[in-house]
């Protein structure tokens, strides 16, 4: 049994790294300057779901290390703590899917119609986030109380697939809309469209990877259910699948940030096509009206957005 405890401690180490990685991802979203306020709640819920997935897996692994048998994980009536960890794990699993779906729909609507960043729309986004959390809680209860585990996960995978399709369409439409609105729409609307492109491009790779992982899990477990006395194999595969999810949690913030670095390099290359702002304090228009420049590009952008007609 020494090898069992050794693997358990290695797995626990992976979980600890996944927890720190998920916290780092939350930090990336908190400091994101190109993320609009209406879509921020959905992406925050997405990052929080990764944290809870790693956290609940860590609690379950700790239960195994202190003496709970792995086969007891299928019958949570024997351990109330395991039942609670399982509920939280399924809640995070559903929250991951619903949050990505809401974020994709928000990005598509923003790319097509532009959403005003008003207080009313921000409150509406927070309300949608609360509804998503409630739906995730319902899913966690249903998957334990009703005997259609695979069907529930399959439905969740369908939502994942739709979210991925909408995310890709949002990215494609934002490029087309940005080219067609040059000199037509306001600077704020074009900024929203570019924001859609930046974040959809950053999230499409991890979203594809997450969908492939979940889809593979459903197919394998579905095949194992057709075999008699395959419960131990399902438990083993589910356990390793959770480890893969932890590795995914470790990798996802670096995937997102690397995509942003490429977009920033592309933006810097494109910026060379226009004249940079001279390091002076003010300029004058043709009619002699002075325009005072700001100290940073962000302040200057906000000034132009609020004053230019």
TrEMBL record:
Keyword DNA-binding: no
Listed transmembrane segments: 12-35, 42-62, 82-103, 123-142, 148-169, 196-224, 236-256
Transmembrane keyword on record: yes
Keyword annotations: Membrane, Transmembrane, Transmembrane helix
Name the UniProt record assigns to this protein: Serpentine receptor class gamma
Species the sequence originates in: Caenorhabditis remanei
């Amino acid at each position: 049994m020494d090898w069992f405890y050794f693997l358990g401690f290695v797995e626990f180490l992976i979980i600890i790294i996944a927890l720190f990685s998920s916290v780092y991802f939350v930090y990336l979203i908190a400091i994101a300057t190109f993320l609009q306020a209406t879509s921020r709640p959905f992406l925050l819920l997405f990052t929080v779901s990764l944290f809870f997935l790693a956290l609940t897996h860590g609690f379950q692994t700790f239960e195994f290390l202190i003496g709970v048998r792995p086969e007891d994980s299928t019958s949570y009536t024997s351990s109330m703590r395991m039942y609670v960890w399982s509920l939280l794990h399924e809640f995070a699993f559903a929250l991951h899917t619903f949050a990505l779906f809401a974020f994709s729909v928000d990005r598509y609507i923003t790319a097509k119609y532009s959403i005003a960043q008003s207080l009313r729309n921000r409150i509406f986004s927070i309300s949608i986030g609360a509804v998503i959390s409630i739906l995730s809680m319902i899913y966690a209860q249903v998957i334990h109380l009703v005997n259609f585990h695979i069907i529930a996960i399959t439905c969740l995978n369908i939502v994942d697939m739709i979210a991925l399709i909408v995310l890709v369409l949002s990215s494609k439409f934002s490029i087309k809309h940005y080219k067609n609105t040059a000199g037509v729409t306001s600077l704020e609307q074009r900024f929203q469209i570019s924001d859609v492109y930046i974040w959809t491009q950053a999230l499409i790779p991890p979203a594809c990877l997450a969908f492939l992982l979940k889809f593979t899990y459903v197919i394998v477990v579905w095949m194992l259910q057709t075999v008699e006395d395959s419960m131990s194999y399902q438990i083993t595969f589910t356990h390793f699948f959770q480890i893969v999810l932890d590795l995914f949690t470790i990798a996802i913030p670096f995937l997102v940030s690397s995509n942003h670095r490429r977009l920033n390099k592309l933006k810097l290359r494109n910026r060379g096509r226009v004249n940079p702002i001279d390091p002076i304090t003010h300029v004058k228009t043709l009619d002699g009206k002075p325009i005072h420049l700001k100290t940073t590009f962000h302040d200057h952008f906000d000034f132009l957005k609020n004053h230019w007609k």
